[in-house]
Design a protein that fits this description.
Oligomer: single chain
Number of strands: 0
Helix content: over 70%
Radius of gyration: 17 Å
Order of helices and strands: HHHHHH
Distance between the termini: 34 Å
Structural class: mainly alpha
Shape: globular
Strand content: under 5%
Number of helices: 6
Length: 122
């Protein structure tokens, strides 16, 4: 799950900023992010980047992670479901863009690597 972890860690500031705009304090945002990342990674396991991005755009992060994970975040952080849903909605655009960019980048690297191998073989 390094790919998914990187999607959160490399853009931590952008997520925090979006959460603050949604009304979270910096402290709340910093507590929220690891929980959201963990729940997201669990649900995204065994899905491709394109599938994840499409689902995020179609149904949003709150529905993507599911009601059980949503409730777990609420309980762990002492927030109500409205607060958690607002936070998940706030970070969804950043997450979707990050996943799409990382997928494009990985695809480009893989293509270059394949071409380099073909050049050496040919």
């Amino acid at each position: 799950m390094d790919f998914l972890t990187d999607c959160f860690e490399q853009h931590d500031g952008a997520y925090i900023e979006h959460l603050e705009v949604a009304g979270y304090s910096t402290e709340q945002a910093r507590q929220f992010m690891p929980e959201a990342a963990s729940r997201f990674a669990h649900r995204a396991r065994n899905k491709g980047a394109g599938q994840i991005t499409a689902q995020l755009a179609e149904i949003g992060l709150a529905r993507f992670i599911g009601p059980g994970h949503l409730e777990a975040i609420c309980e762990k952080l002492g927030m109500d479901s409205v607060q958690v849903r607002m936070g998940l909605a706030a970070i969804t655009p950043v997450l979707a863009q990050t996943i799409a960019r990382k997928a494009d980048s990985l695809s480009s690297v893989a293509s270059s690597t394949r071409q380099g191998l073909f050049d050496r073989i040919g």
